[in-house]
Amino acid sequence: MSTPRIPGNDYGVLAVPAPGTWEPRLTVSVVIPARGGQDKLDLTLAALAAQTYPSHLLEVIVVDDGSSPPLRLPEIAPEHTRIVGDASGRRGIARALEAGTAVADGEVIHRMDADIVSYREHVEAHMRWHHLAGYLVVMGTLRFTAMAGIPPTPAEVQIAVAKDRAGLLFEEDPEHGHDWIGELVAAHRDFRDAPSSLLHRVHVGATVSLPAALLRETGGMDTSLALGEDTELGYRLTQTGAVFVPDAEALSWHLGTTTAMRRPADVRRHNDPFIADRIPYRRHLRTDAGRQWLVPYVDVVVDAAGASFEDVRASVDGALASTLPDVRVTLTGPWASLAGERPAPLDDPLLDLRLLRGQYAHDGRVSFAERVPATSAPVPFRLVCPAGWVPGADSLAKLIEQAEKDDEGLLLVALDEDESGVLAARLERTSAVARAARVIREGERLDDVIADLHGATWLDAESWKLRPAARAYPYWAVNRNREAARWKAAAESRAREAERAQRQVAALKAELKELRAKAAKGSRDTVRWKEKAEQRRLEAVALRQAQQRSLLGRAARRLRRLTEGP
Length: 566
Fold this sequence. Notes:
The chain is an alpha/beta fold. Helix content is 39%, strand content 18%. The chain contains 16 helices and 17 strands. The chain has helices at 38-48, 93-102, 122-130, 154-162, 179-187, 212-218, 229-239, 259-262, 264-278, 309-320, 351-360, 395-405, 430-439, 446-453, 469-472, 482-564; strands at residues 28-34, 58-64, 81-85, 108-112, 116-118, 136-145, 207-211, 243-255, 298-303, 327-332, 366-369, 381-384, 389-391, 410-418, 421-429, 456-460, 466-468. The strands form three sheets. It has an eight-stranded mixed sheet. It has a seven-stranded mixed sheet with strand order 11-10-9-12-15-14-16. A two-stranded antiparallel ribbon has the order 13-17. The radius of gyration is 36 Å and the shape is flat. 38% of the residues are buried.
C-alpha cells in the first residue's frame, strides 16, 4: 500500500475512484463476530455473496462466540467463507475479533456485525480507499430498519443486492439511526476538518475496515473490554497517525437496534470508567482529584544522561506538580549501567543516576527508559524538556490548550540560545509524529514534515512559564506539590466566588421576577380602574339623560295643565 501525504484528516487530497471504474488487487478478510442470530447471519452472508468486489480477493470469517446451538454455514454465502471459534473458550466481541483476525489472510481487515445487510458495492466502496493509502480507517454508513413484517429470505436478499436493489429490501426506522455521526461529519466538512481529539468518536465498529498491518501495529483489540472496544481501538488508531474516512457510498442495513440505542444510560454507566482510564481526550470523565490513569494525557521526557541530580529533579518535580492530574514522567538515561558492583558511595561516577533512581523508583508516575521512544503512544502528547528547565504549574495545561486550539502537531518553546543553536522544549502531538514518520522521505527533517502536515509554532519560555532551575527551584523543596496546592486553592477560591456570584444572580433574578409581577399587577389594576371609570362615565351619562327626560316630562305635563285648564 502507498503512503501519500495527507494533512490532518483531509482525505480529500486523495483521488478516489467511483465504484466499477478501477482494478482491485488487495485481498480483504471480512471478520464477523456472532453469538446466535442464525437468521440474521444468513441475510448478512447472502448480501456478501452478491458483492461487486472480486470473489477471489474476498474471504469471510465468522467467529462463533459461544452460540448454542453452534452457528452453521448457510447455503448462500461467499465462496471463501468459514466459521471458526475462539480456542481459548473465552467470550466477548473483542476476543472474537482477535480470534478472527489471527487466522485472516487478507491484507485488509473489514470488521462487520452479524446483523448487517450490505449494499452491492459496500465492500468495493471500502476497498477503493485502501488501494490509495496504507493508513486509512474507512467507516461505512448504516441505515437502520425495525424489520417490520416478514423478513426477506436469503435468496431474496442475494437477488436484490445483485440487482442493486438493496435499498428496497427494508423500510427505514425513523426512530433510530446514527444521526449524531452524520451531524459530526457534516460539521467538519465531511470529517476532513475534524480535530485529532474527535476522530475516534465515529469508530463505532458495525462496518469498519483498515489495513491488517495497521491493526497489528496498533496492538489489536483490547480483549479486557466487554463493551466500548471499538471506541478504544479508534483512539489508539488515532495515535498511530491513521486517517478516518466516513464513506457515504458504503451503505448497508442494520437489522434492528443496537444495545446502546435500547439502553443508552446503562451503556454509558458501564463504559465511562473504562473509557476514562484509556482515552485521555475524554476530559469530562477525568474530574476526580488525585487520580492516576492507565493512559496519561501527557508524557514529560527528561534526559538524565550527563545531567546533575539537582537539575533533573527540578524538571521532574515541576512536571509532577502540574495542575493536570494525568501526567507521566519518563526519565531517559543509561540505567543499565547501574547494574553490577557499586563503588564507594560518595565517589561513584554514576552517583547522579543512582540518586535519581533512588528518588523516583517508587513513584508510580515516573518510568525509566534507556532512550526516547519514537512516540509516546498511546499517550496523546509528549513534552521533551531539557534537564534543568522547570515547567510552571499550569505550563503543561496551557501548552496543550494552545496545541488543541488549532490542532497543531508541534510546539517549540525557545529556552536559551548559544553558538551551538537554540535550546528548546518540545510539545509533540503523538498522532502528528506518527503520521510524519510514516511519510517522511530520505533527507527530510521530521519537524519539517510535522509542520507541513499538522503545523508547528515557536513560543517563548517566559510567556509559558518554563524557567531555569536556578529561578524556579528549590522554592517548593519542602513540598513539591506546593505550587499545585496554591493553584488548587486559587481555583477553589474562584469557585467560591463564582458560587457567590451565582447566588447573587439568582437573588437578582428573583427580585426582577417579583418586580415584573408587581408591574404586571399594576398594569392589570390600571386596566381594571380604567374599565371602572368608563363604567361610571357611562352611568353618569345615562343618569343625565334620564334626568333630562324627567325634566322634559314635567314641563310637558305643566304645559298641558295650563292649556287644558280654561
